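>> received
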Amino acid sequence: MPAPKRVVIADDRITADAAYRLACEGTAMLWRGDFQNARQLLQALARRADRKPGKAATTPVESFNFHRQAQSQRARTLAMLLMPFNADHTIPLRRAPDVTAACTEAYGVAGEPYVATLRELLGLIGAHEWRKTGVEIAALGDKIHPHYGVFAPVRGEYVALVADMALPATNLAFDIGTGTGVLAALLARRGVKRVVATDQDARALACATENVNRLGLAAQIEIIEADLFPPGRAPLIVCNPPWIPARPSSPIEYAVYDPDSKMLRGFLQGLAQHLEPGGEGWLILSDLAEHLGLRPRADLLAWIEACGLTVLGRKDVRPIHPRASDASDALHAARAAEVTSLWRLGAR
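>> returned
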C-alpha cells in the first residue's frame, strides 16, 4: 500500500466521526494518544465503514466484483490510522503492548523508527499468536505453526481429502506450492518415504522448514525453492492451488487469488511430464470460482484434456468454514453451494 499523501497528528481528543471523515478523504492520522483508545477508534471506524450500503448486483460476477471493491475501500479507510514505532519495534505510546516479537517475525530488524497501520499491527499480533500456539490439524494428529504472510490451513476439508485418498505409491511424492508444509507432512506421516515440497515464497519456505523440523520429519521431507515442479518425476504429485482467478490485493491473498488461473494452468501443463508412468496428480480445488461465474467447469475440463491428462476419479467434500452458513455474507449463495474436490489425474 502506498504511503498516504497527507498525514495529520491525532490523539484521544479526536471524535470517531471526524476521524472517519479524514480517513475517507485519504488523510492518515499518526496517533499520539493512548494505544488502547486507538484500538477503540479503529473499531468505531470499522463500524462506520460496514454501515455503508453495498451496490446492488444482478449477477454472481457483479456480486464478487462489488464485494472486492467494498473490501478494498474498507481496507484503505482503516489503514489511515498509523502507529509510531521506535527502531527496536517498541511503540512510544501509553498502554502500548510489547509487540517486538511479532514485528521482528514479520519485518525483521528495523534499524530506524517507522510507522505502520494499526490494522496491520493487529494482524501481526494475531499471526504471532497463531505461530506460537499452532493450528490443530485433525488429519495430521498434530499442529502446524503458520508464519506471518503464509496462509494458515484453517480449512481442514482439503487436508482430510488428502488423508483419506488411497496412495498410488509410497516411495516418492511432490508437494507443489507447499505453503506451511501441511500436505507434505501429512504425506510423510502416511508413510511416503520421501517428499519433495516446493514453493517460491521465502516466508513459506521458512515456515514449511520450521514445521517439518518441529514434527520430526526432516529426514523424509526436502523443502526446495522452485516455481511449481522440482526436477525429475514422481508417482504422486499433489497441488492445492489458489482457487479464485482474480487479482490479489495483498501478498497473503496469493494463496486464494490466482490471476488468470496462472498457477492452476501451470500445474496442469507440467504435470504429465513430471509424472512417472502410471502415476497420479492430485489437484485439490474448490469450485467457488464456478459459482461466482469466474471460471466455468468446462474450462477446467478443457485444460485437463489439452494438457494430455485424463480424470481417473474425483472425491468431493463440502466446506465446513463459518462463511458457508453465514447468510449475511455478500457471497453467501456461492459459498453455500461450494464444493472442494480432489481430482485424480493421470497422463494419457
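>> The chain is about 40% helix and 20% strand.
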